[in-house]
Amino acid sequence: MSFRQKYVAFLHRKPTGLREELIWMMLKGLAHVYQGLWWVRRLAYRLRILSRRRLSCPVVSVGNITTGGTGKTPIVIHLAAHFISEGLRVAVLSRGYGGKRDQGKPLWVSDGQKLLAGPREAGDEPVLIARKVPKAAVVVCPNRILAGQAVIRRFKPDLIILDDGFQRRYTTHRDLDLVVIDGIQPFSTGRVLPAGLLREPLDALADAGVFILNKADLARSVEDIRTQLARWNPRAPVIESVYRVTGLRDLLTGRKVKPSLLDGVPVGILAGIGNPLSFVRTLAQSNIVVRHAYTLDDHFAYNRESLKGIVDDAKARGLLYLVTTEKDEVKLPKSLAEEIPVLVQEIEWVVTEGMKHWETILKSLQLSGGKD
């Protein structure tokens, strides 16, 4: 297991022994400090001691309240592709986790015509967005105002999408906050970091404009999650959604592969994502049985040594295929598939409940972008 997986497992079980009790006490103490600082910051903005800046373009944020694994990126891709198909010029602003670059200035991943940066500089998710929606401008920078101003000057978008922007709502004005809730692990332990996986206290849900209950088909109880959301924010509509597997693609050749090819075949997964369990479960829906999982930290930076170790282990276990995600694909060399066949799982994001609400939301955003 990766460090994150061990950490999450520790958070979700009772401590055993004095050492674990002491660790829990320390984590809870740090969580109280974290939450206190959050309250002070929110109060400062509400009292207008600190101010929020506005970009000269409609802005929609796709964010979450927990760390990693909720599935924001496919939703960003869906939104960008939809509005581009409706004639809007769309820009996506991202933090660019996992990228190594000059943190002080915006990095153009795509100008809406060609790819300008790779995953090493920009991070895996911005590159994936740029590949999947080639007509969108994609810019990476921790300072979203700086990035927004740069993209407005150069690209002149009709609409800006903030990828992972919910925690920046006090610094950057947005016209709508879409908050993604993970159906598998919606609220973690109910505690903020580092005693839980919440990036903010649950009170923050009151600031959401719309909830997207993602991976609803994998939720233990959709109604329980809806009840919790209504408790914190009864005004925001809840949209339910799932991932639908559209197929498998050979990493080396790019050819489509039928899932039936893997019937009864020893298969492993290769995934550096926030919630690998959802990946395993979507494969199970295609009747693919995973014999071994190479689960790495989210945004894991693959290198020759780590890949060699995985390939050698996979061969020793008798695995005939590795299946990976589109997010991992952008960081994997095609030469990997010369060592062992690698298939990429392709998915699409689909609304399953609340379609009328969703269509109304899309229409209002389209109108705000100036297209009737």
Question: Can you give a write-up of this model?
Answer:
The chain is α/β, with parallel strands linked by helices. It folds into 2 domains: 59-242 and 350-368, Rossmann fold; 244-347, Rossmann fold (3-Layer(aba) Sandwich). The protein contains 12 helices and 13 strands. Strands 1, 2, 3, 4, 5, 6, 7, 8, 9, 10, 11, 12 and 13 form a 13-stranded mixed β-sheet that branches.
Q: How many H/I helices? A: 12
Helix and strand succession?
HHEHEEHHEHEEEHEEEHEHEHHEH
Low-confidence stretches: none
Percent of residues in helical segments? Answer: 25-40%
CATH class category label of the largest domain: Alpha Beta
Shape: globular
Quick structural summary:
With 372 residues, the chain is an alpha/beta fold. The protein is built from twelve helices and 13 strands.
Give the topology, please.
Blueprint: H1 3-11, H2 17-46, E1 59-64, H3 72-85, E2 90-94, E3 107-111, H4 119-122, H5 124-132, E4 137-140, H6 144-155, E5 159-163, E6 176-182, E7 210-214, H7 222-232, E8 238-250, E9 256-257, E10 267-271, H8 276-285, E11 290-295, H9 304-316, E12 321-325, H10 326-329, H11 336-339, E13 342-353, H12 355-368
Parallel strand pairs: 1-5, 1-6, 2-4, 2-5, 6-7, 7-8, 10-11, 10-12, 12-13
Antiparallel strand pairs: 3-4, 8-9, 8-13
